[in-house]
TrEMBL record:
<dbReference type="Pfam" id="PF09335">
    <property type="entry name" value="VTT_dom"/>
</dbReference>
<feature type="domain" description="VTT">
    <location>
        <begin position="42"/>
        <end position="169"/>
    </location>
</feature>
<feature type="transmembrane region" description="Helical">
    <location>
        <begin position="151"/>
        <end position="175"/>
    </location>
</feature>
<feature type="transmembrane region" description="Helical">
    <location>
        <begin position="62"/>
        <end position="86"/>
    </location>
</feature>
<keyword id="KW-1003">Cell membrane</keyword>
<keyword id="KW-1133">Transmembrane helix</keyword>
<feature type="transmembrane region" description="Helical">
    <location>
        <begin position="181"/>
        <end position="198"/>
    </location>
</feature>
<comment type="similarity">
    <text>Belongs to the DedA family.</text>
</comment>
<dbReference type="InterPro" id="IPR032818">
    <property type="entry name" value="DedA-like"/>
</dbReference>
<keyword id="KW-0472">Membrane</keyword>
<protein>
    <submittedName>
        <fullName>DedA family protein</fullName>
    </submittedName>
</protein>
<keyword id="KW-0812">Transmembrane</keyword>
<dbReference type="InterPro" id="IPR032816">
    <property type="entry name" value="VTT_dom"/>
</dbReference>
<feature type="transmembrane region" description="Helical">
    <location>
        <begin position="21"/>
        <end position="42"/>
    </location>
</feature>
Length: 210
């Protein structure tokens, strides 16, 4: 059991994903995390940042423009898939008992986040783990206007991808020695991106108690 857990944690390592699978696995992970609700635990933000740092190296031998375009497309298509899953299966999912892969409170958090920010939430939520994965599912469930969703989906995927990939890319150019501290950088990204999620969870919990 311990070895199985270790293998799962290893698979979730952004460095291992890119080293072992290259661009194809990177795009598959981005598409899956954005498109399938049960993949909410995958390392989206840190994966994009690391991809930017490794862009141009033998592992990711593509230009920075190509890398951003490929990842943004994977994120864009993932959201479309999640929207239609929510539209077709959302009510059925809510009727199911909670499990590790689907918890109703995750969908409620995404709904609450959208209600406060409306369409802008589709852009901002890209930077928040869990909410990023469940928001398009929520929008499909409530049958949000698809044309408007597509517009903000496009903008959000481009902003999310370009900001994180370019941050990693330029940081590597300015401080090339940072490549030796990838583990610490990834840990810092995970901690920083988890803060908005924890705040949203706290707000919902506080609202229920009041």
């Amino acid at each position: 059991m311990y070895e199985f857990i270790q293998s799962i944690l290893g698979f979730m390592s952004p460095e291992l994903i890119i080293n072992k699978g290259g661009l194809i696995l990177l795009l598959a992970i981005v598409f899956t995390e954005n498109g399938l609700f049960f993949a909410f635990f995958l390392p989206g933000d840190s994966l994009l940042f690391l991809a930017g740092m490794l862009c141009g190296l033998p592992i990711l031998d593509v230009t920075i423009v190509e890398l951003i375009a490929y990842i943004a497309l994977a994120a864009f298509l993932g959201y479309i898939l999640s929207y239609f899953i929510g539209k077709k299966l959302g009510k059925w999912l809510l009727s199911r008992p909670d499990s590790f892969f689907f918890k109703a409170r995750y969908l409620n958090m995404a709904t609450s986040y959208f209600e406060k920010r409306q369409q802008g939430a589709i852009i901002v939520a890209r930077f928040i783990p869990v909410i990023r994965t469940f928001l398009p599912l929520c929008l499909g469930l409530i049958k949000s206007d698809f044309k408007v969703f597509m517009l903000y989906n496009f903008i959000g995927s481009l902003v999310w991808t370009s900001s994180l990939v370019l941050a990693g890319y330029f940081l590597k150019l300015i401080f090339p020695d940072l490549l030796h501290y990838l583990e610490w950088i990834i840990l810092l990204i995970i901690v920083v991106t988890a803060i908005p999620l924890l705040r949203q969870f706290y707000k919902i919990k506080k609202a229920k108690l009041s």
